[in-house]
Amino acid sequence: MSNRNVLVVLSGPSGVGKGTIAKLLIERNRNVSLSISCTTRKPRDGELNGREYFFIEKSEFISKLEDNGFLEYSEHFDNYYGTPRQFVLDSLKEKDVLLEIDVNGGLEVKKNYPTALLIMIEPPSVEEIRNRLIKRNTESMEKINSRMQRIDYELGKKDLYDYTVVNDDLFTAVEEIENIIKSEKSKI
User: Fold this and answer.
1) What's 146-166 look like in SS3?
2) How far apart are CA 80 and CA 92, in angstroms?
3) Is 45 domain-assigned?
4) First to last CA, the chain
5) Cα separation, 43 vs 25, whole angstroms
6) 108 near 14, Cβ under 8 Å?
7) Number of domain units in the chain
8) Is residue 173, in this structure, part of any structural domain at all?
9) What's the Cα-to-Cα distance from 147 to each of 28, 112, 160, rounded to whole Å?
């Protein structure tokens, strides 16, 4: 078995639990680290620069983009998001790296890093997503409705992903992802 570390991409609709799954994967696995994306959006309450995201100005983001500094980038809800290329490559020298990004970003990462492992996180139901977004209490109903309209599009891309995991039970979903990573590493 090779010691090569794996770049794992978790994608799925807003509110599906990607962040919670990623946090638990990292807590349970010493060889997994979370990549930190750059964004031009403002921090939410409790978020810190360099922990949840690298919060940067739009001009800095565009400069990095022009220098091919991202594995992927996108614009959502009037903000830019991107995965810093060098940060990920440096992190992969030490551990498996987990990216928590949208479906288009995941597919772009696969183009730029073909051995990336893409895992779609699917909700048990669309209604459950709406409930989770409302319960999170971080966005207006208008933003929640906008995110809800995107669900069909995002889940429609799951066949382009390597695996799909339904997040009905958090610990079951995490164990399933751990088993996928272990299985994929054994193939290398």
Assistant:
1) HHHHHHHHHHCCHHHCCEEEE
2) 24
3) yes
4) 7
5) 23
6) no
7) 1
8) yes
9) 30, 27, 21
Burial 123-154 (b: 16+ CB within 10 A, else e): beeeeebbebbeeeeebeeeebeebbeebeeb
Cα–Cα distance list, 75 to 22, 101, 169 (Å)? 22, 12, 31
Domain span including residue 67:
7-187
89 within some domain: yes
Q: What is the pLDDT of residues 48-94, one digit of tens each?
A: 999 889 999 999 999 999 999 999 998 878 899 899 999 999 999 99
> Is residue 98 in a domain?
yes
Three-class secondary structure of residue 134 per DSSP: helix
Average pLDDT, the chain: 91
Query: What's the CATH number where 125 sits?
Result: 3.40.50.300
